[in-house]
Amino acid sequence: MNTPPYRPDPTGGCPHAPNARLLAAGAVAPVVLPGEIEGMVVLGHDALRDFLSHPDVAKGPQHFTALTEGRIPDGWPLRTFATVPGMTTADGADHRRLRTLVSSAFTARRVEELRPRVETVTAGLLDGLAEAARAGDGVADLRRHYALPLPLGVICELLGVDPAHQDRLHHLSSLVVATDTEPARAVAANRELVELLGAIAAAKAAAPGDDLTSALIAARDEDGDRLSQPELIGTLLLMIIAGHETTLNLVTNAVRALCAHREQLALVLDGRADWADVVEETLRWDSPVSYFPFRYPTRDLTVDGTLIPRGTPVLAGYSAAGRDTKAHGPDADRFDITRAGTVKHLSLGHGPHYCLGAPLARMEAAIALEALFTRFPDLDLAVPEAELTRHSGFVGNSVRTLPVRPGD
User: Fold this and answer.
1) Confidence of residue 106 (pLDDT cuts 50, 70, 90)
2) Do the Cβ atoms of 147 and 402 come closer than 8 Å?
3) Which of 93, 251, 257, 330 could form a disulfide linkage to 147, CB 3.0–4.6 angstroms apart?
4) Domains of the chain from N-terminus onward
């Protein structure tokens, strides 16, 4: 008897149990997306690695059959992922052109130059977390007071975005990436986000600064073939969303993992493991992104014995690949920071679309975790893990709030 296609829960939920069931049946599985759109998910580590770098797999929306046939409405919750102009929906020379425009801001040297600033911001946020806990009977939301403002503040500073816009940018970003946003609200959020980014770009055009947005505008004005206005706005949207949502989930998931595995926390506090090991094992064990949209085969493609028809929207199953026992051993579902470095994970992508901000995300997370547990070594969750409310949607993988007791 054929197993019915998997329907990812638009309202979210922990992905690991469904992933294990799907992986038991194979590395590739059919899915039904919101709106009864048929798609596929690649879950197995090796299959996903090969799929992400396959020459006959594209990201351009013109390859999305249901979209070109007019079956994807404006309010479809995943439409932005498929259609936003910029690196994530470009292929070949267009992708290389757009990536080159921003890649200089994320080299290892440029990221390392940001370290003192990240450390300063982190120290201030720890004071704020302690103050929030004192005001909250010893409990504070770690996401709101710590895991969110660090990466959001850093990416906005890189882009030259006024701090006054940060809360609204995060709110709108959350609506855009959620898969349970009501259609009319999704359309409105997308429109407002594009308008806000347009206003930010216009202000920078009038008064350029030493920031990435000003550099992108200069490239647009110097040569329209290098960057169009829609591509400029799409690039800003991508960098703001990807520049903070992923790291927010990464830090949140790492804190949850360490609180649930105190023996692992002891290893790193005692110097027997490194904070970078914590980051890498968290990326593997509880990827900040679960099912990332979209890629499309440009021809009928067989992946690990399963046919994926041309034009099918395919999700990258990062959270599943991280616990694939065929790649990571029979104990793949065990959080163990001593294994970090021995097995490569795919949680930051692979191939030409590998995450450009990976060095920055890794540095931010390592600094944030070391500073947090150095100052608050007894920090623990204020509610049981099972009572935490999961992230909205099946793209991001984390919880909505993380109440903690920092301790003295």
Assistant:
1) confident
2) yes
3) 251
4) 16-405 (1.10.630.10)
